[in-house]
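Hi,

Apologies if this is the wrong queue. I'm a grad student, and the batch job for Fe2OG dioxygenase domain-containing protein from Stylosanthes scabra produced an output file that my downstream script rejects. I'm not sure whether the problem is my script or the file. Here is the sequence I used:
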Amino acid sequence: MVTTIEEGNQVEHESGYDRQRELKLLDDSKAGVKGLVDAGFSKIPRIFIHDNLSTSSSSTKKNDSIPVFDLGSLHEQGSSRHELIEKVKDACEKWGFFQVVNHDIPQCVLDEMLDGVKREFYSRDTSRTVYYNTNFDFYTTPGGLNWRDTLSCVLAPRPLDPHLLPSICRDIIIKYADYVKKLGLVLFELLSEALGLNPNYLKDIDCAEGLFMVNHYYPPCPEPELTLGISGHWDSGFLTVLLQDQVGGLQIFYENQWTDITPVPGALIINLGQMMQLITNNKFVSSKHRVLAQKIGPRVSVACFFREHFQPETSSKVYGPIKELVTKKNPAVYKDITVKDFITRHYAKGQDGVPALEHFKL
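Support response: The file is valid. Your script probably expects a header line. Output copied below for reference.
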């Protein structure tokens, strides 16, 4: 069977399926998934079909157990801060995910950020500071592509020239990033204390130095049962701050089943990346998660990853299990590696269902 991209529908033939030709047709169009929807596709091209796909999720009871924390308690006197740290510690050890409210980012900024996500600057050069494309592992993933387009930008440690950003979302991206950087410092303090370390520990080893933003746009899908918005994967950095709209579709793989994370108005989702699992020597976990494709939409999300992104001055920095967390009973699980080692591995393997962290075990 061959899918003819130009016609907007799957066309069956007896001849073999030319996957590379279909990939190139879509890539050369530079229109992304949104371009397919705008062209009136009633069926998704074969390159987006995921074999043996199950989109079931766990019960409502388990869904409700996703932790939601009120950061307003940080400003209160007494035991509130200690209680919050203990709850964050528990969430990081069990889930690797939690949500936060009262995070000091105004609702109007969150709304404007979601409204500003647009498509621009199609490119597959991930060393650029700003680029737009469909699926970062477009040519390397062994399975179906994901039903989404992404605008990516590197915001730190080197300041981004605002003129490199699309004019329609330039101001709000810079404004939102400033808020996220401040929130990141608060979160890294909480995580440091939850690990039994000095509050500034993670900040002092530069976990908050890099910031990489991806703006995901998920067009409505005519056949959501055949594909995914994002395949199951683990984030690569130390910490992710995720802003999503109210459409839903995000799931975490918890206790051997996919569990829905229902959007909470005004909340931000916080999840740990594999670099955090590495430096904490598996004390904190990075959990597999995915996004379902849906007929309703579009769905929009903004993920801010605290990590470096191929900058020469930072990507050679070495990280390994934190010495204070390594003992005879709990020896180091991972090698000392550079950020460049990890990000290169992450991009080369694509979202193949295996965490990049496995490659760096001792």
